[in-house]
Specification:
single chain; 245 residues; alpha/beta; Purple Acid Phosphatase, chain A, domain 2; 6-stranded mixed beta sheet; globular
């Protein structure tokens, strides 16, 4: 049995705009993403997941900028859209070597599922039967990690909990804690670690701007850009944590 862990990092909510210098909540998106470089290189990921809101404006140029930086950090790079993204534009720009859209990736003996909860005309997320279909492919005897942009449970911050994954029971009724170890998400721009139905619920901090927790409004947290890492062992053991630049 291999004891080698597969290292995956989750980068979320980069909010890059086409126009260089465009700020997001008073921060520089590409500069802050680039500040993570030493952390990413230390972690030496075997794969990267971009978990949505890669772009602020849905422009091709924003995806090109992120791809050019991130593809140097490790591959494959799996991606899914957030509410600020434009999936057709992402598909076009990220149709390049090293990038994959799943929806089911096989990494280190794990099944890593990329669910698309984004609808271009609204900020909250939803998973309909078609978007949930990849879960039916899962092998119940192999560990699984689910990625989705929107929070599958409330995180306790009213400013973002008003834009949740609606009808979230549709997701939960399809997840079996025997194989699904965690649901990882972005969107909330803060670190959250909880549990639902025996399954861990973990957010990644934004790579550009995060809020203090449990605040009624977005309140900039000076701890800076962050990422979530996972170590996945083929026997189903796993570990996860957060790093800031
Ligand atoms: Fe976001
Ligand atoms: Fe979002």
């Amino acid at each position: 049995m291999s004891e080698q862990a597969f290292t995956l990092i989750q980068l979320s909510d980069c909010h890059v705009s086409a126009q260089p210098g465009t700020e997001y909540r008073g921060c520089q998106p590409m500069n802050n993403l680039a500040r993570l470089d030493p952390v990413v290189r230390e972690l030496a990921p075997d794969a990267i997941v971009l978990s949505g809101d890669v772009s602020e404006d849905g422009s091709a140029e924003s995806y090109r900028q992120v791809a050019a930086l991130v593809e140097d950090w490790g591959q494959p790079i799996a991606w899914l859209p957030g509410n600020h993204d434009e999936r057709p534009v992402m598909e076009e720009v990220l149709d390049r070597p090293g990038f994959i859209a799943g929806p089911v990736c096989h990494f280190g003996g794990w099944q890593v599922v990329l669910l698309d909860s984004a609808w271009h005309d609204r900020p909250e997320g939803e998973l309909d039967a078609e978007r949930l279909a990849p879960l039916a492919e899962l092998d119940g005897d192999q560990p699984a990690l689910i990625f989705v942009h929107h929070q599958p449970i409330a995180v306790g911050s009213p400013w973002i909990d008003k834009y949740p994954l609606v009808e979230n029971q549709r997701l939960w009724e399809r997840l079996n804690a025997r194989c699904v170890k965690a649901v990882a998400f972005g969107h909330v721009h803060q670190v959250f670690e909880g549990e639902h139905a025996g399954i861990a619920c973990l957010s990644a901090p934004s790579t550009v701007a995060n809020s203090h927790r449990d605040t009624p409004k977005f309140t900039l947290d000076e701890s800076g850009p962050g990422l979530r890492w996972f170590r996945l062992w083929p026997d189903g053991r796993w570990a996860s944590g957060v790093r800031h630049a």
